[in-house]
Amino acid sequence: MTRFALAIAAVLAACAHHDSTISTDAPAPPLDARVAACTSSYAVGSGSAWCAVDAMLDQSLAGSAGTSQYPGYEFAVYQADATGAPVLRYSRVDGMIDGATADVATPVKTASAAKMIAALLVARAASYAGSAALSPATTIDVLGCSGLDPRLAGTTLDQLMHQIAGLDYQAENACVTSTKVALADCACSILQTNYVPAQAGSFAYTPHNFTVAIAMADAVLRAAPTPTDVRTLFADWIATLGIPSTEAMLTPTNDFAGGDHLSARAYAQLAALALPGPARGTYRGQTLLDSTMLDRMTTPFDDDVTITYSPYEAAVGFAMRYGFGDWVQCGAAWPEPATWPALDAPVVTLDYATCPYRAIDSLGKFGYMPWFTVGDRPYVAVMAVDLSGGSDASRVSANSFAAYEMLDPLLRTAIDDPSP
C-alpha cells in the first residue's frame, strides 16, 4: 500500500471511532519489467503507455499473493471529444460485482462519491432554470422555511456545497435517510434543528449540506417557466447522454451525499461533461451544465476558512481543501512520507497556491473512487470495488484512493496515445 492508502485507511478508521493497525502488502515487481513492448487489451488506442496502466492497476488491487484481494472491480477512463461527448479510452473489469460477472455497466453503491454527482446535478439545474434563478449566490430563501435562526439569513448555495454553512456534522437528522419525508420538508428540518452558529463559516463535512442544496435546486426547478424537479431532470439528463436508467440511480431517500448507485461507465460519462476544454458543460451543441457552477467545483474554500471537522485532518493532519461538492487535490504539493505528521501532530497546510495541477475527486467509503483532472491532458476515471464476501471497507477505500495516486501520472501520459 502507498502512503495515500495508509492515510485513507487511517481516515476511515478515525471516522469509525476505533483503532486500526494497517499492514502493508509485499512490493510488486518493477513496472518496467512488465510493460516493455506490449499492447494493452483494455485500452481504446495503442501504445505501451497503457500497459503501464495495466500493470499499476494490477499492483493497486493485488494482495500479497499477487492476486486480486476483492471479489471484483470496475475501472473506466473517459475523455471528452470536441462536441463534449464522452469518449471511452480504457475499460477493465475483474471478478464479481454484486454476485454477477463484473462489468463497467454494473451499478455499485457510490457512498460519498455521490457528492460530486450532487454538484453536477446542481450545475444541470442551473443550466435548465437559468443562472438568474439558480447560482452560487442563491440563498436558502428559495425554500420558504419558517422558524429559522436569524443568523441563517443569507446562507448561500455556495456555502452549502463548500460545506461551510454551519450545519452540524455530529447530530444526525432521520429525515435524510427517509423515503417518506418530502425533500423540501427535510431541508427545512435540517435548517431548523441542525444549525450550529459557532460553526458557520468553518468547514464541517456533513451530508446535511447536500440535502439542503439539492432541495434548493428542486425548489427553483419547480418554479421554472417549464416546471420540473431534480429527479425528472436527472432522468432526462442521462437519457440525453444515452445512459440507461438501470446504470444511474439517484438515492431513493434525501441522502444526496451518499445514497446513489451508479456504474463506473455512467459516472464517468456524467463527469466527462465537466472536463476543461472548449466544449465543457455541453453535449453535441447543447449546454447541459452551468459554467459558473463548474468553476466553483475547481475552487477550494478560502485561506481563512477554519476546519471544524474534516476526515483528512482528523486522521492524518492534512488540511485538505474542499470545492463545490468535491475534494480538490494539490498534486505534488502532498508531503512526502518522511514529513508526515503523527496523528497528534500539528496540521500540515498544503500549498494550494503553487499546485502544479489539480485533480477533483470524491472518495466513497465503499471503494467507489471517481476523479478527473483539470489541468493539461484532462480525463475522468472511475474505480468501483465490490465489498461482498467480507472485504474490509477501510482497506478497499484505501486502495481505491491509492489507485488515484499511482495511476494518475500514467494516465496523463497514456491518454496522449491517439484513439483508433
Q: Any overview of this molecule?
A:
This protein is of the alpha+beta class and 420 residues long. It has one domain (104-397): 3-Layer(aba) Sandwich (Beta-lactamase). It has helices at 3-15, 32-35, 49-61, 114-129, 157-161, 183-193, 208-222, 230-240, 264-272, 291-297, 311-316, 393-414; strands spanning 72-80, 86-97, 100-101, 108-109, 203-204, 248-249, 261-262, 282-283, 286-287, 307-309, 321-322, 327-328, 359-361, 369-373, 380-385. The protein has an 8-stranded antiparallel β-sheet, sandwiched between helices. A hairpin with a 7-residue loop joins strand 13 and strand 14. The chain is globular, with a radius of gyration of 21 Å. Residues 1-37 and 336-340 have low confidence and may be disordered.
In brief:
Helices cover 31% and strands 13% of the residues. With 420 residues, the protein is of the alpha+beta class. The relative contact order is 0.19.
Radius of gyration: 21 Å
As a percent range, the share of helical residues equals 25-40%
Query: Given the helix and strand composition, which structural class is it?
Result: alpha+beta
Strand content: 5-15%
CATH topology: Beta-lactamase
The CATH architecture classification is 3-Layer(aba) Sandwich
Q: Output mean pLDDT.
A: 81
**What about the largest sheet?**
8 strands, antiparallel
Secondary structure tally, helices:
12
Terminal residue distance? 35 Å
* CATH homologous superfamily heading: DD-peptidase/beta-lactamase superfamily
Quick one: how many beta strands? 15
